[in-house]
Write a structure and sequence with these properties.
It is a single chain. This protein is of the alpha/beta class and 638 residues long. It has 30 helices and 14 strands. The strands form 5 sheets. A 6-stranded mixed β-sheet has the order 1-5-3-4-2-7. Helix 16 packs across helix 19. The radius of gyration is 33 Å and the shape is flat. The N and C termini lie far apart (84 Å).
Length: 638
């Protein structure tokens, strides 16, 4: 191990991908993607401006000399290096620089605002103190091109357009002075970066990476496994997955300002290239194709995740922002949990798997869960898709459950789509969090494939209705539970947009609460409905009833299938049609309507409920009553 220093310019040149000097840095492929935020980048530049504060030591691994070029792997310090190269290319994109410029513009405006308009002064200063005008780090900081004739003439022209002749020299001089001050504040060229050069066998690299990176930006379990799985190789035949792996590395190189990537195969590729001159071209092509299809376990997981996400683009899956998604899903599929130990065990499992069959089965499982949950967890409005369930742990668990039980589900698919939906609503009413214990229980006991205990469900939804319909101290937003409940009974048409609306309008509720010093609930289940957007209007300007009538929907259809108020002996026309309410009458109305909605769910999903005894695995396998269940197209009376 040797200790040394890099000057800033030497380091930036070495990271460029095509250095002019004799040092070159490469990124090992097990390095994580960029995690730093703009604030952290600014803090690094501030630290370099203060020569008494260290930014830490770069940890490099010495590879070899090649044609007088020293080549190193960057083991620790990726974010620092890429931040510096980013700063060198365009220091004006940093928040720190913009704050300095804003302060200078403020000084210019304050100094001369009595003589000229503030807006004109701001425009002048913004044009001058821009990256487009002053250039990159090399031009502005090192070469000081702001002093050359061309730049001086440009400044003079701008000032002449704005200022009186007697003021021009004074203002140009002041701006030039402030330009030099800005340049000095941005200058980091005198800083040096301490470096440790590690040597030794290549197989120690992953361990070195893990040990050195523990004190910086927190590594995830999969960041660590990327290093552990660095030398593992599996044969991948799915061209789409291979393309996604290549695209991932292309993005990685771009976000690191063109810095080269490296893995052990680079050495092998060079040797193969030299040997290939003596071989037959056809044999070489076959060998190259074979080499290209071998990737390590972590690379396969990256490519597989991106492949599946692309397959289901436009569904709620694309909202998942979890780089550990694939590890979590396979850990649940193979081991029924998401522990670090299960993550590690994926490697051995994949070695014994037919990857083509694995990919098809995962794709089927994801498609099943999306098909089951989308109707009850998504509302397609004209402006956007409202996604009512974003919990990644829940989605992963249900996908794993479908994966593990594909053969059973496929025999009675429609029934299990309904049991998945009803169990989801049951857990939503209980506000259940998918903890490690819950995940294991759901997978082990096949919970979402079982019927829901009717009394338990009724108790939960009754409590929800009572709490949701209470007088309150302030208005709440529409909660996802109410929207999900409405989704369970609405008529869906993929060619239509839908909106969430109020039967009694916000204006009427606000007027009543103001006049009566009350706070009856606006966004409670009993006052909400999901209705089709008939003429593609974005905002409702009348009541939902008036709007639907205007769009040629019959009264019976509205009351039965949108409002669920087809009771013959109860008349709430004063509320629905005339928007006339009292506290007692309105609370009675929203509770009554919410219970109607509950009864509609119980009727529609009656074959997904069980009374009394606990359902066992035999019930799941041999449930004759569940076969051929169909979701109703609508709720009209026969």
């Amino acid at each position: 191990m040797d200790i040394g220093k890099f000057a800033i310019e030497t380091l930036i040149d070495a990271c460029s991908g095509n250095p002019v000097g004799q040092k070159k840095l490469k990124i090992p492929k097990f390095q994580r993607r960029r995690e730093w935020k703009p604030k952290q980048e600014d803090e690094l530049i501030d630290t370099l401006r203060d020569n008494n504060i260290s930014i830490g030591t770069l940890q490099l691994y010495k590879l070899k000399y090649r044609e007088k070029m020293e080549i190193y792997l960057l083991i620790d310090g990726l974010h620092r290096c890429t931040t510096l190269t980013k700063y060198y290319k365009n220091p004006f994109q940093f928040t720190r620089t913009q704050k300095l410029i804003d302060d200078i513009i403020g000084e210019i405006v304050t100094k001369y605002k009595k003589m000229y308009k503030a807006e004109d002064l701001e425009n002048l200063a913004e044009n001058w103190f821009s990256g487009k005008n002053l250039g990159a780090y090399q031009e502005f900081i090192i070469d000081k091109t702001y002093n050359d004739n061309e730049k001086t003439e440009y400044l003079t022209e701008m000032v002449e357009k704005l200022c009186e002749k007697c003021d021009r020299d004074m203002i140009c001089k002041f701006i030039k002075t402030k330009t030099k001050e800005l340049r000095d504040e941005m200058d980091i060229s005198k800083a040096t970066i301490p470096v440790i050069f590690n040597v030794g066998p290549r197989n120690v690299l992953p361990k070195l990476f893990k040990r050195l990176n523990q004190n910086g930006t927190q590594l995830t379990k999969t960041d660590l496994l990327a290093a552990d799985f660095y030398t593992t190789k599996i044969e991948i035949s799915n061209i789409d997955i291979i393309d996604h792996i290549k695209e991932y590395y292309k993005e990685m190189r771009l976000e690191n300002n063109g810095m080269e990537l490296y893995d052990d195969d680079d050495e092998k590729d060079e040797k193969d290239k030299k040997d290939s001159d003596a071989d037959d071209d056809t044999d070489n092509d076959a060998e190259d194709d074979n080499t290209k299809s071998k990737y390590n376990i972590n690379e396969y997981m990256i490519g597989l995740m991106r492949y599946l996400f692309e397959k289901f683009e436009g569904t709620f899956v694309t909202e998942i922002n979890d780089k550990q998604f694939m590890y979590k899903l396979l850990a649940c599929c193979f081991f029924e949990d998401m522990s670090a130990k299960s993550f590690e065990g994926i490697k051995d499992k994949l070695y014994g798997e037919d990857l083509t069959q694995l990919e098809k089965k995962l794709e089927w499982a994801m498609n099943f869960v999306i098909s089951a949950l989308s109707p009850v967890t998504m509302i397609n409005t004209e402006d956007k898709n409202i996604i009512l369930m974003r919990d990644v742990a829940t989605l992963i668990t249900l996908m794993a459950l479908a994966y593990k039980n594909k053969d059973k589900i496929i025999k009675n698919k429609e029934h299990y789509m309904n049991t998945f939906q009803m169990n989801l609503l049951n857990d939503e009413l209980a506000d259940l969090t998918f903890s490690s214990k819950v995940i294991k229980t759901v997978l082990k006991e096949k919970k979402y494939m079982r019927k829901v205990h009717k009394n338990e469900f009724v108790g939960k939804i009754n409590r929800y209705i009572t709490n949701n319909s209470k007088i309150r101290t302030k208005q709440d937003k529409i909660d996802t539970t109410s929207q999900m409940i409405l989704n369970f009974i609405r008529n869906t048409n993929p060619d239509k947009f839908y909106e969430v609306g109020h039967i009694v309008t916000k204006k009427k509720i606000s007027e009543f609460n103001k006049d009566n010093d009350k706070m009856v609930p606006l966004n409670c289940l009993g006052n909400l409905c999901i209705y089709p957007n008939g003429d593609d209007k974005k905002k409702l300007t009348e009541t939902v009833l008036e709007y639907l009538k205007k769009n040629d929907m019959e009264d019976n259809d509205i009351y039965e299938n949108i409002f669920y108020m087809d009771d013959e002996n109860i008349d709430y026309d004063d509320i629905i049609e005339h928007q006339e309410i009292t506290e007692k009458y309105y609370i009675e109305f929203v509770k009554h309507r919410a219970h109607n909605i509950k009864n509609e769910i119980l009727k529609k999903y009656k074959k997904c409920f069980i009374d009394g005894k606990k359902e066992d695995d035999n019930d799941i396998d041999n449930d004759d009553t569940a076969h051929n269940i169909k979701i109703k197209k609508n709720n009209k009376k026969n």
